[in-house]
Amino acid sequence: MPELPEVETVRRSLTDTLSGATIVAIEERFPGVLIDESEGYTLPLTIERLRRRGKYLLFDLIDVEGKALILIAHFRMTGKFYIEHHNHVQPHTHVRLKIIKDGNTFHLDYVDVRRFGRLWLYDSHDENRHKTIAGLGPEPLSEAFSEESLRFSLKRRHGSTVKATLLNQEEIAGIGNIYADEALFRAGIRPQRRSGRVTKKETAKLHLALRDVLELGIGHRGTSFRDYVDGLGRPGSFQQLLNVYGRSGEPCHVCQTPLKTIRVAGRTTRYCPRCQR
DNA sequence: AGGGAAGCCTGCGTGC
DNA sequence: TGCACGCAGGCTTCCC
Length: 277
Known about the structure:
Layout: H1 4-18, E1 22-28, E2 34-36, E3 45-53, E4 56-62, E5 68-74, E6 79-84, E7 93-101, E8 104-112, E9 118-123, H2 131-134, H3 147-156, H4 162-167, H5 177-187, H6 200-219, E10 260-264, E11 267-271
Parallel strand pairs: 2-9
Antiparallel strand pairs: 1-3, 1-7, 3-4, 4-5, 5-9, 6-8, 7-8, 10-11
Helix pairs in contact: 1-6, 5-6
The protein binds a DNA duplex (16 and 16 nucleotides) through loops.
């Protein structure tokens, strides 16, 4: 499931191939996956650059008349971009963008088995036209995410579990189930604890742990637990470093106690009953 | 108001 | 072998 490190890895993997390329045709193969909120444009669209905000991938576009647009993608569970150099169409391809780069023609396919993901098109390069993006919390790897801002988030959501607060995109952008569980393990905090009961010292540990797992995740090109691959079809390797996610019942890497599985904030949650208090 | 839960989706693993 | 069922989970919407 693509979280911040996976979306960042997709962005990096597609940047060289797509920067400066032009979209010469947009084919909707399944209705409703691409939501066009623009007031119109004239093809071709030049891809100026790829950016990321939380779990959203952003394409800054300029149409043939110089008008700025933005294409926004959210993969949810199983969405992915796939570069198709031949005319083959793999199953669950919902949007096909015909691309020309340096005289070469290929397709950028949006493929999504469960069809939870969406693409949006807006006028201007301002991703905040998208209401949910406008409400996102700070980027956890930016200066805006500090020990202080995390403390403020935990205080504001004092009644929710600490895991629910980490998953709340309005508090921190880009954390999902895998990296939330991993960060809580590293910080020694039980996921079901109330946010308001996390001490200042634990908050500092959690802040560091979140930064660490996200940076490690990016460094390992993401977590390929089920079927995640980057924009060029390559799996990541962070799954080799997971301490709790997907390890229910297995011994804790630190104390050998069998890991527990519970349900927190509607999500399957794994933790070590001895290391996490 | 704010938090919990249902609903959206399909593939896959399990049990009968 | 085949079928029914449960589970995976990010986000929106609904409900308490």
